[in-house]
Amino acid sequence: MPNKIIYTAPAVVTSLNEKIKTPDVLKSLDGLCCHKDHVLNYQDDFPNPTRFRGGFLRLQLGDDESLQVAIELECDERLSTKELKTLKDSLEGQVSDGIGAGCFDFLSEKTDLSVELLPLGSGKKSQIDQRKGNAWLPGKDAAKQNAECCKRAQAVLQAGEKKSSKPGKISKNPNALFRLIDKMSAPITPDFLETLRTEIEKLGGDLSGIPDKQFPFQNMFDVRVLKMLLDAKLRPNLTDCKGNTLLYLSSGHIACMELLLSLGVDINATSGSFKETALMRAAFLGNAKSVEFLLKKGAATAPKTLFGETALQQALNNQEMYLNGQPGKTVTILKNWKP
Predict the structure, then answer these.
(1) With contact defined as beta carbons under 8 Å apart, do 20 and 154 qualify?
(2) Do the beta carbons of residue 149 and residue 34 sit within 8 Å?
(3) Is residue 7 within 8 Å of residue 128, measured between CB atoms?
(4) At a CB cut-off of 8 Å and minimum separation 6, what does 137 contact?
C-alpha cells in the first residue's frame, strides 16, 4: 500500500469582510473542493512532482470544528523528515500565494462568502503527516457536489441574516450587482439599467466595503461597462477595499481614465497602503501611452510612494525587472517631461 501525505492549513470564511463563525455555515462548506486543478501542475514550485499522485485542495472541518484546507498526496516510498519539511514548505507557498489564492473563487461567485487560506494572524499553523493509504481524489460528481455546497451555505447564511436583521435596514450585499455586471455583454434594456441603479443605490454608490477578490477589477478596463456603472450613480471617486481609486484601477486604459477625469476625479489621488498615484502605476506597468496621457492631463511627477519612490523610479523598477523595451520608452518620457 502506498504512503499518504496529508497537509492541512487554517482557512477562514468571510462575508463582507466579517469573519463567519456560524457552525452551520462552516459545516455546509465541508467537502468543497478544487477539482479542476492541483498542486502537481506547478512543477517549478514542487519538488520531484513525478513521485506523487493527487494534490487536490478541499475544505474540511478540523477536530475543533474550525475550517481548514487539506491536500493529500501519495507516493510509493516513505518520505524522510527532511523531505517532508521541503514538501511542506512547497505546499505552504502553493496554498498562500499559488493555486490557493484563487481556487475557491467560485464560492464568491455563487454566494456572499469568500475563503482565505493560511490567513495572517489566525494563530494556527499548517501541519503535515504521512501514513499508509491512498490520497483523496475528487469524484466524477465533484462539480455537482460543489454546487450543492454553495447552495446550502448561501441558504444557511441568508437564514441567519433574516433572523438578525433589523426593520428598515438596507442590505449592502454586492453580489446582485456583480451578477448584473457579468451580464453587461448582453443587449442593455431600460429595465436592466433601472435594476442596475437600484442595486447601486443599495450600496450607497460605494464599493469600499467589498472584500478582496469580490471587487470587479476587470470591469474598470471596459469603458462601456464603467460608463454604465457611473450613469447608474456609482461614485467616480470611490475606493475599493484596499483604498485603490477607480482611476488607479484603470491605469493603462486611456478611455476609462479620460471618462473618470471628465467627472472631476483627482488625478493625483493616492491609492492603497503604498500611496501610489495612477501615474505611478502606469509607469510601473510600462504603459508609455497612459503615462503620456496622464502627464498631459496634469499628473504630477514629484509625489512619492510610501517607500519614497517617484513615478520615474517606478518605471526604472519595471525596466530592471522586465527589460522588454516598452518600460524604457516610459523612462524616457518621464525623464524628458516638462510641464
Answers:
(1) no
(2) no
(3) yes
(4) 54, 56
Alpha-carbon 83 to chain mean position: 32
pTM over 0.85: no
The per-residue DSSP string of 265-308 comes to --TT--BTTTTB-HHHHHHHHT-HHHHHHHHHTT--S----TTS
**CATH class, range 175-336:** mainly alpha
Residue 110 CA to residue 15 CA, distance in Å, equals 13
Three cell numbers, residue 289: 501611452
CA triplet 27, 28, 33: central angle to 5 degrees?
105
Apex 39 CA angle, 37 and 44, nearest 5: 120
φ/ψ of 284, rounded to 5, equals -70, -35
pLDDT tens per residue across all 339 residues of the chain: 899 999 999 999 987 667 888 899 999 999 999 999 999 888 665 667 788 999 999 999 988 889 999 999 999 999 999 999 989 988 988 898 788 878 998 898 788 888 889 886 667 889 999 999 999 999 999 999 999 999 999 898 888 765 554 443 334 566 666 666 666 655 667 777 777 777 777 776 666 656 555 555 555 677 877 887 788 777 888 887 677 888 998 888 899 999 999 999 999 999 877 899 999 999 888 888 999 999 999 999 999 988 889 999 888 877 655 554 444 788 888 888 887
